[in-house]
Amino acid sequence: MGTRKKVHAFVRVKPTDDFAHEMIRYGDDNKTIDIHLKKDIRRGVVNNQQTDWSFKLDGVLHDASQDLVYEKVAKDVVSQALDGYNGNLIN
Q1: How many other β-carbons are positioned within 10 Å of the β-carbon of residue 64?
Q2: Cβ(24)–Cβ(33) under 8 Å?
Q3: Which of 12, 42, 47, 68 has the fewest CB atoms lying closer than 10 Å?
Q4: Residue 60, H or E segment
Q5: For 84, how many CA atoms within 13 A lie in the half-sphere containing its CB?
Q6: Are strands 52-56 and 32-36 parallel, antiparallel or unpaired?
Q7: pLDDT of the chain along its 91 residues, tens only?
Q8: For the Kinesin motor domain, which residue ranges apply (predicted)?
């Protein structure tokens, strides 16, 4: 990540046995995530409910360990903070 002055966005999907495969898809580039919800049929024939979202990120960390998350996301920010620079990590 270096000392570039821009916001970086990552998504970490924690390991789980009950993952929503039918709702969440990952891009082959490990930088996109697509969310799809089924239409709520209770809303009737005219239903303008949004059902699809696509997000472009700096990284998608699927089933990533805490060590890998630190390495990819926090290591540079922590190092720069120790050198006196400002940095934020939001969980």
Answers
A1: 20
A2: yes
A3: 42
A4: strand 59-62
A5: 0
A6: antiparallel
A7: 555 568 889 998 877 777 777 888 999 999 999 999 887 777 777 767 788 999 999 999 988 888 999 999 999 889 988 998 888 888 7
A8: 6-91
pTM over 0.85: no
Q: Quick one: tokens of 78?
A: 């922590």
Answer yes or no: are the C-beta atoms of 36 and 25 closer than 8 Å. Answer: yes
DSSP 12: E
Separation CA 5–CA 1 (nearest Å): 10
